Amino acid sequence: MEKALRVYGEVLRLVRRLPKETRPYYAKYARENFVNYREVDAGDTNALDELFHRAYSHSIWVLNKYSVDQSAADKLKEVCYD
To answer: How many angstroms separate the CA atoms of 73 and 5, rounded?
Structure first.
């Protein structure tokens, strides 16, 4: 659970780097995704790892879409792949 909260926090930090008019959409999108997967068994490390990796890859895609430097997600990558 702690790792999931760290990933969520990092995703929200990345949302702040997006253009102002897009932030509410992506903040809501991130929250909805984390809420949708809250029932995942905390002991199922494979499922959690896949969700964390997906969070990272989706974040990279969004950063690239808005021409935000990908290195902004280095901390998220560190959390997701630790």
So the answer is: 16
User: Pick from 77, 73, 81, 74: which is nearest to 49 by CA?
Assistant: 81
Residue 2, pLDDT > 90, answer no
Amino acid identity at 2: E
- Residue 39 covered by a domain: no
String of DSSP letters for 52-73: HHHHHHHHHHHHHHTT--GGGG
d(CA 72, CA 2): 21
Report pTM: 0.90
Total domains present in the chain: 1
